[in-house]
């Protein structure tokens, strides 16, 4: 069974991370793994239609390959965060190599005049060293599972819509893998937030 909501006890174990935010009517949509031509464009068009803002945790090599798309994210009022240069798994490399990959992504942003809001580890995988030494780590409270081919779009919406409460940080992916589900669930989630008077904001 896919777990769409982070169990409530986990954030208390790692209080330095941002899992959700205090808010009366705002919700925080986030997109990992882009920017990806056509897919990120689709996301931006959907967000614009609903006057919504979001945060894009970008992979550095994708940002370097698609600078115009990165600039579009910025120019349309969304925030940008670091998702490593090459989507590294923190459990598979030593900390120095991981830190270098994070810094390489940051250098891509700096070259384009972009101020990163912080960092999200790929796969949500963290280590004790990361917890101690990497600041401004954003995780999430709701995971759509848009990348999971074993799910269907209807079931994703069935589980996720009731979880969209003020302060929630919700994860999508603007990637090729996630695109089939994303194209179905993102418009529905934006419409739901609009009906519930939830304002979609950037972190």
Structure description:
This protein is an alpha/beta fold. It has one domain: Alpha-Beta Barrel (TIM Barrel), CATH 3.20.20. 39% of the residues lie in helices and 12% in strands. Strands 1, 2, 3, 4, 5 and 6 form a six-stranded parallel β-sheet that branches. α2 links the parallel β1 and β2 (55-58). The chain is globular, with a radius of gyration of 16 Å.
Structural features:
203 residues; alpha/beta; six-stranded parallel beta sheet
Mean pLDDT: 96
Please give the largest β-sheet.
6 strands, parallel
Number of helices: 8
Report the count of strand segments: 6
Let me know the CATH homologous superfamily: Glycoside hydrolase/deacetylase
Task: Give, in order, the helices and strands.
Answer: HEHEHHEHHEHEHE
Report the CATH C-level class: Alpha Beta
Assign the structural class, choosing from mainly alpha, mainly beta, alpha/beta, alpha+beta, or little secondary structure.
Answer: alpha/beta
- The tally of structural domains comes to 1
* CATH architecture annotation: Alpha-Beta Barrel
- Beta-strand residue percentage: 5-15%
Distance between the termini: 29 Å
Q: Which residues sit in consecutive blocks of at least 5 with pLDDT less than 50?
A: none
Q: Using only CA atoms, what is the Rg?
A: 16 Å
Helix content: 25-40%
User: If you consult CATH, what is the topology?
Assistant: TIM Barrel
Indicate the overall shape. globular
EC number: 3.-.-.-
Enzyme class: hydrolase
GO molecular function: hydrolase activity
Protein name: Polysaccharide deacetylase family protein
């Amino acid at each position: 069974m896919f777990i769409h909501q982070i169990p409530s006890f986990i954030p208390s174990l790692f209080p330095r991370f941002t899992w959700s935010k205090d808010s009366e009517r705002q919700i925080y949509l986030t997109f990992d793994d882009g920017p990806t031509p056509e897919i990120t464009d689709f996301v931006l068009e959907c967000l614009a239609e609903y006057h919504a803002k979001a945060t894009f945790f970008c992979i550095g090599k994708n940002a370097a390959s698609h600078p115009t798309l990165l600039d579009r994210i910025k120019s349309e009022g969304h925030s940008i965060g670091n998702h490593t240069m090459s989507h590294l798994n923190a459990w598979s490399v030593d900390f120095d190599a991981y830190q270098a990959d994070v810094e390489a992504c940051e250098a891509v942003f700096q070259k384009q005049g972009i101020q990163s809001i912080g960092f999200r580890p790929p796969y949500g995988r963290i280590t004790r060293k990361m917890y101690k030494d990497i600041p401004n780590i954003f995780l999430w409270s709701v995971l759509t599972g848009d990348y999971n081919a074993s799910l269907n779009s209807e079931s994703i919406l069935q589980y996720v819509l009731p979880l969209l409460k003020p302060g929630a940080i919700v994860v999508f992916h603007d990637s090729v893998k996630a695109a089939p589900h994303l194209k179905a669930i993102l418009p529905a989630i934006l419409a739901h937030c609009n009906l519930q008077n939830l304002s979609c904001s950037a972190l």
